[in-house]
Specification:
The protein is an alpha+beta fold. It is about 40% helix and about 20% strand.
Length: about 130
């Protein structure tokens, strides 16, 4: 079984889309094994987006992800990372296909509703970052 990390971002929470995101994941046949709500501290957000620290929008990303509560989940299943990435769609809502979460609900960056790990290795790092060691 593969694990991945999923986060419904502040605007997704504000718009009441947590249930829709989780429903689509469960309908796919994946299992949600951990679930939490909370706010992300600026230091944790900076660590999460460290790979983008040299980009001009880095500060905006940190400010945005810390602007309100988020819902976080650990999702398990065969090829969980790829399945979830397919469900959420392209990062840029303008490129996200209809039928994907971002294609159906997001309008513009950085407000793209949801984050999901891009590899099994990243998933384990993010799960530890947001849920702690198991």
């Amino acid at each position: 079984m593969e694990r991945t990390f999923v986060m419904v971002k502040p605007e997704g929470v504000q718009r009441g889309l947590i249930g829709e995101v989780l429903r689509r994941i469960e309908q796919k046949g994946l299992r949600i094994t951990r679930l939490a709500m909370g706010r992300i501290e600026p230091a944790v957000a900076a660590e999460h987006y460290a790979h983008l620290k040299d980009k001009p929008f880095f500060g905006e990303l940190v400010e945005y992800i810390t602007s309100g509560p988020v819902a976080m989940a650990v999702v398990e299943g065969p090829n969980a990372v790829r399945h979830v990435r397919n469900l959420i769609g392209a990062t840029n809502p303008l490129e996200a296909a209809p039928g994907t979460i971002r294609g159906d609900f997001a309008v513009e960056l950085p407000y793209n509703i949801v984050h999901a790990s891009d590899s099994p290795e990243t998933a384990e790092i993010e799960i530890k970052r947001f849920f702690g060691a198991e």
